[in-house]
Amino acid sequence: MHSLRFSALVALFAAAIGFATPAIAQNRETPYWASIRVERVNMRVGPSESYRISWVYRRPQLPLKVLRVKEGWRLVEDADGARGWVTARFLSRDRTAILVGKGLVALRANPGDDAKLLWNAEPGVVGKLGDCDEGWCRIDIAGHVGWVRQARLWGAGEP
């Protein structure tokens, strides 16, 4: 009987933590970086499914800047400056970045313009963001890892 009460208490505690976690997540300071975690996300003009869809993202790992938090919704901004509301459950805190600017982006073996050139990538390519230091960031693009000037990345640095 005692172990049954203990099991019930543990289950109740676990459920309480499960319900508390989303409330804690709502209290994050904004802005912060997030990325799309699914294949398709609707951006809406307001924080509810009753608002019209203004854009549909079909780019998993695309970085977004979270500007506001409202219940289960996030007001986000993308690299082009488009703003709208997305459902929080479709976002991840995994850091990613998108290559930006004009012309090819050099990915180097080490931080520095004189480091060995590994390859060039097109603006618009998305990768997993690693550490940034002194204006250079490590990025993993589909298993190809290199260093890129931070100025050529949207999603790196402070939001």
Automatic annotation (TrEMBL):
Entry-linked Pfam families: SH3_4 (PF06347)
What UniProt keywords apply to this chain's record, in alphabetical order? Signal
- Which top-level group of life is the source organism from? Bacteria
- Indicate the secretion signal residues: 1-25
Q: Which InterPro entries match?
A: DUF1058
User: Which named protein is this?
Assistant: SH3b domain-containing protein
